[in-house]
């Protein structure tokens, strides 16, 4: 409908602006009760109507109402269709969930029955296996018992033979040991007899050599004592009391060439000055005359010399 056709009818009906305003308000309230959200098209129509009111232009209220009712019906139908679709989906989902739950329960029941059946089969198998093992163990124990008895007999016979062999071997060992002991005793007796004979011969020779050496040493000592006495006196400084009573015994350590290593008074004359003078005389007389024979040195190594001026 054009704006040209609207103006003549508006003039005939003489609709006031107040009536138009009330109609618009009434439509707004109706729209608010039926729907929370209004379609953009309705919003555009309302906006146009508002502009027309502001511009103080009359509108065809009946035509606008018819259009709005149709839109509302379409929206309502669309919304109902959406609600029906949602309900259908909800019913379908419930049905699907119920079918799923039924299948789950059926599967659980089937698995449980299978588990029970399997458990029973395993128990029967284990019982049969245990029975078979028990029978086999009984047979094995019988075989082991027979084998143990046979081994016991064999071991007993083996032990008897070994004992006989050991007894014989021990007898032979003892016999050989006795013979070896006897032989060693005879050899040891002979060795001891030979050693004793050699020891006696050696001791006899040593005794004879010692006696001969002592004899030679005694002869040499008797020969060398006057010479030693003279040389010591040549190096002697008389003590204040003179030579009378100055007769100490001096222990002299000598080197193989007669050198005096040390001199010590072992028997005092009673006069300290005398003893000291004689000791000094021996040290000054070094070397003193002794035999140069090495066999006689042991007799002259240490001399307890009685000084008699």
What features would you describe in this structure?
By secondary structure, the protein is mainly alpha-helical. Among the domains are: 3-97, no CATH class; 235-306, Fusion Protein Consisting Of Minor Coat Protein, Glycine Rich Linker, Tola, And A His Tag, Chain: A, Domain 2. It is 77% helix and 6% strand. It has 6 helices and 3 strands, in the order H-H-H-H-E-E-H-H-E. The protein has helices at residues 3-13, 17-34, 40-54, 61-234, 272-284, 294-300, and strands at residues 249-254, 260-267, 302-306. A 3-stranded antiparallel sheet has the order 2-1-3. Strand 1 and strand 2 (260-267) form a beta hairpin. Helix 4 crosses helix 6 (294-300). The longest helix has 174 residues, at 61-234. The termini are far apart. The relative contact order is 0.05. Mean pLDDT is 82; it is low at 1-11 and 55-59.
Biggest sheet statistics: 3 strands, antiparallel
Task: Give Rg in angstroms.
Answer: 78 Å
What's the N-to-C terminus distance? 192 Å
Order of helices and strands: HHHHEEHHE
Assign the structural class, choosing from mainly alpha, mainly beta, alpha/beta, alpha+beta, or little secondary structure.
Answer: mainly alpha
**Overall pLDDT score:** 82
- How many strands in all? 3
Q: What would you call the shape?
A: elongated
User: What fraction of residues sit in β-strands?
Assistant: 5-15%
Poorly predicted regions are 1-11, 55-59
SS summary, helix count: 6
Helical amount: over 70%
Lateral strand order in the biggest sheet: 2-1-3
């Amino acid at each position: 409908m054009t704006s040209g056709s609207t103006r003549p009818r508006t003039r005939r009906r003489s609709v006031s602006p107040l009536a138009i305003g009330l109609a618009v308000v009434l439509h707004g309230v109706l729209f608010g009760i039926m729907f929370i959200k209004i379609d953009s098209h309705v919003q555009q129509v309302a906006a146009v109507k508002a502009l027309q009111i502001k511009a103080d232009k009359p509108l065809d209220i009946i035509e606008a109402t018819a259009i709005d009712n149709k839109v509302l019906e379409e929206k309502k139908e669309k919304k109902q269709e959406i609600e029906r679709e949602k309900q259908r989906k909800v019913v379908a989902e419930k049905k699907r969930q119920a079918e799923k739950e039924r299948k789950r329960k059926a599967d659980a029941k089937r698995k449980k029955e299978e588990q029970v059946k399997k458990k029973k089969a395993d128990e029967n198998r284990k019982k049969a296996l245990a029975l078979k093992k028990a029978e086999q163990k009984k047979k094995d124990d019988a075989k082991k018992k027979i084998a143990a008895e046979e081994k016991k007999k064999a071991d007993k016979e083996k032990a008897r033979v070994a004992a006989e062999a050991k007894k014989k071997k021990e007898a032979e060992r003892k016999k050989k040991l006795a013979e070896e002991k006897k032989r060693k005793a005879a050899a040891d007796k002979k060795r001891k007899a030979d050693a004793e004979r050699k020891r006696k011969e050696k001791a006899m020779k040593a005794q004879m050599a010692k006696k001969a050496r002592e004899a030679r040493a005694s002869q040499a000592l008797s020969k060398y004592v006057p010479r030693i006495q003279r040389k010591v006196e040549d190096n002697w400084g008389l003590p204040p009391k003179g030579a009378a009573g100055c007769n100490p015994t001096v222990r002299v350590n000598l080197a193989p060439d007669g050198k005096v290593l040390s001199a010590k008074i072992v028997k005092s004359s009673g006069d300290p000055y005398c003893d000291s003078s004689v000791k000094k005389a021996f040290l000054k007389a070094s070397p003193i005359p002794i035999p140069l024979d090495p066999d006689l040195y042991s007799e002259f190594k240490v001399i307890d010399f009685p000084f008699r001026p």
